[in-house]
UniProtKB/TrEMBL annotation:
PROSITE patterns: ABC_TRANSPORTER_2. It comes from Streptomyces cyaneochromogenes. This is Sugar ABC transporter ATP-binding protein. It comes from the Bacteria. SMART domains: AAA. Keywords: ATP-binding, Nucleotide-binding. CDD domains: ABC_Carb_Monos_I. GO terms for molecular function: ATP binding; ATP hydrolysis activity. InterPro entries: AAA+_ATPase (IPR003593), ABC_carbohydrate_import_ATPase (IPR050107), ABC_transporter-like_ATP-bd (IPR003439), P-loop_NTPase (IPR027417). Residues 10-246 form the ABC transporter domain. The lineage of its organism: Bacteria, Bacillati, Actinomycetota, Actinomycetes, Kitasatosporales. Gene3D superfamilies: P-loop containing nucleotide triphosphate hydrolases (3.40.50.300).
């Protein structure tokens, strides 16, 4: 009996994106599987943010194939990504500081009963969701501006989970956090992986990557420049790929070793 592995949740095959005469992404390959954290790495200008926008439907790809569970799909708008089960938490978090935690979670998707806001139901759902994720946000009615940076990051992640996504894109989730808050966010992402979510983690912090990610995909100048099994690859190998110190032969070797 031959074992046939299940297809990844999301796969990009030869994806390209151009702005005017500049091709920002060229022949990008990427796979995200359920229950795995994939780190997306690269220097500034490598194309990471553009790739996230392509996956989240903010800016559609010009060429290439995007597959969802092995079948080709079109992601032309954010609604397309959301309908598939892709949620994104951007670095700026996009929270309203004057609103409380409940108000931020349900902003734009409020629960109504008999034509009125059902505050009780929204608070109940918020409490249940945060209890599953963390106990780091004790007051659901506190204005978000009064929360710590780590608590605000937790609120932003919780909001993205309201629609029960299967893939979560996290753009630099620990960039502005201290050590303790970073640990809380990393623990949260670890729990999301245990629940079977696929996570794409955009990060410059190699400590976070080595502590959390299963695989790493490196972009350089808008192209793939290496795929790594984080458990076996050294930090020096990954950094060399980010900086361009590796050449084609080691890049192909890393690709094969990671099973991509």
């Amino acid at each position: 009996m031959v074992f046939v592995p299940s297809p990844p949740l999301l796969a990009l095959r030869g994806v390209c994106k151009r702005f005017g005469v500049v091709e920002v992404l060229t022949d990008i390959e990427l796979e995200i599987r359920a229950g795995q954290v994939v780190a997306l790495l690269g220097d500034n200008g490598a194309g990471k943010s553009t790739l996230v926008k392509v996956i989240s439907g903010v800016t559609p790809a010009d060429r290439g194939v995007i597959e969802w569970e092995g079948r080709p799909v079109q992601i032309r708008r954010p609604h397309d990504a959301r309908d598939l089960g892709i949620a994104t938490v951007y670095q700026d978090l996009a929270l309203c500081g004057n609103l409380d935690v409940v108000g931020n979670l349900f902003l734009g998707q409020e629960v109504r009963r008999y034509g009125f806001l059902d505050e009780v139901e929204m608070e109940r759902r918020t409490s249940l969701l945060l209890e599953r994720l963390t106990r780091g946000v004790p007051d659901l009615r506190a204005p978000v501006v009064s929360l710590s940076s780590g608590q605000r990051q937790t609120v932003a992640i919780a909001r993205s989970l309201l629609g029960d996504p299967r893939i979560l894109l996290l753009d630099e989730p620990t960039a502005a956090l201290g050590f303790e808050q970073t640990s809380e966010v990393l623990d949260l992402v670890d729990r999301l992986r245990d629940r079977g979510l696929g996570v794409l983690l955009i990060s410059h912090n190699m400590g976070d990557v080595k502590a959390l990610a299963d695989r790493a995909a490196v972009l350089r100048l808008g192209r793939n420049n290496g795929f790594f099994d984080v458990n076996t690859a050294s930090q020096e190998q990954i950094i060399a790929s980010i900086t361009g110190a590796t050449e084609n032969v080691p890049r192909r070797m890393a690709h094969r070793e990671a099973g991509w």
